[in-house]
Amino acid sequence: MAKLRSGIHGRIRANVLCAFPEAFLNSLASEGTEIWRVVREGANTISFDISESSLSQLKTLAEKYSVELKLINHRDGRRQLVKRRFRLLPMLLVFAFMLLFSSLFVWQIDIYGSHSLGRGELLRSLEDSGLYVGCFWPGLKADNIRSRLMLENEQIAWMTVNISGSRAVVLINERAEKPEIYDESKAADLVASKTGLVRRVSVLQGAAVVEPGQAVTAGETLASGSVQSIMGTIRSVRSKGSVMADTWYEIDAVCPEQMDIKRGTGLTRHRFALVFGKRRINFYISSGKAIDECDKIIDEYTLGLEGFFALPVKLVHERIISYDTAPGQGYDSAAMSRHLSNLLEDETKGQIIRSAFTESSVNGLYLLTLRAHCVENIALTQDIK
Amino acid sequence: MKRIKELPLELAEKLELPGEIIPGAGSLTVIGGRRALVEGCRGLLEYSQERVVLSLKRGRIIIGGAGLTIRVMNAAALIVSGRIENVEWE
Fold it and tell me: Could you report the predicted ipTM of this complex, rounded to two decimals?
């Protein structure tokens, strides 16, 4: 270990023979030389380490004090290191060449800005256009890819492909949905979107046909677009206004009371594989299903700098977690009530006055019911045919 | 004469100042009986595997033990390793 350390640091081991070796060491130290591993060899002999840069100083002092100096294991550490570095040079060149060569291929495809289209669907379309993992990117034409993908997928309004190193970044801008256009000149009635009890009627245009306190069913006309003029003629208008009504909701959620629940057995197996480009090397013998009931979690680690550069080497770590099943409670009432509350919020567009949950058990099923009383605008514009 | 030499140390003790601020005051740190660091050392007087004698500005230190080796030595400090059995400050 000491020899290795000396080799790395470029130290020299010296042996000194004189009447007072301690005095010689003091002189050497007072000149600013650091001395390591001092060992008493004999009555007048001491050996020690010094750095290569202090060798000339040591020789000068040895001559001055007429000391017999012997250099043991004198190896020029720095020269050795340089030699070793030169030996590494071809390897470095090969590595640099491989890096340069691999950077001419796409090893990672990142897609941003896509919401309605799935990654798999886009990757398939990109592969058809010539962009896939392992493709030679200088031969790609971004315009061709763009044209082809935009023709195949109507949702894409604009897209671009940027290549940085061996990473392809696909930026997608999806087409915005065209809003529904209302023809303001077309006659329309106001109809009830839900069944309820009318609280307040506010018709700005058209003729109200319901009054507060009146019960209406879904689809019933609330305000007519056919208005009688002073002259007695009927003219058609587009009804406008709001009708606030009390509405009631009853939403159910059903789950089995008992079902098989997964429980970890504590047995986890780890499997590793290396993926070079499209070739996979498994570091395990059998790829078959070793455990009957298990979850398989796969983590992939790509070699390179995240978001900047990717090498065609990927480490795959598979965790196979065994589980067994045992009968247990098949429902989570808290989760079910949360889900029902969310459904109610999506359904109603007004204010929830009161809500209550009731739970019951029917034929081995757990039934959770949410009943709510709301106040909301039930007026819905419907064109007169 | 000795009185004058000891004056800075006595003054530092009276004023409750740390001894490290006195120029030329040597210090000795022994770690686990296996390693000793001597600072403010002016030179090596005697060295064998059983005994290391060091010169300080004020007095000398004698380290006794077995298998003693000098790990590092420079103009101001020195590290002795081995089984340290006794230390004398003269």
Answer: 0.80
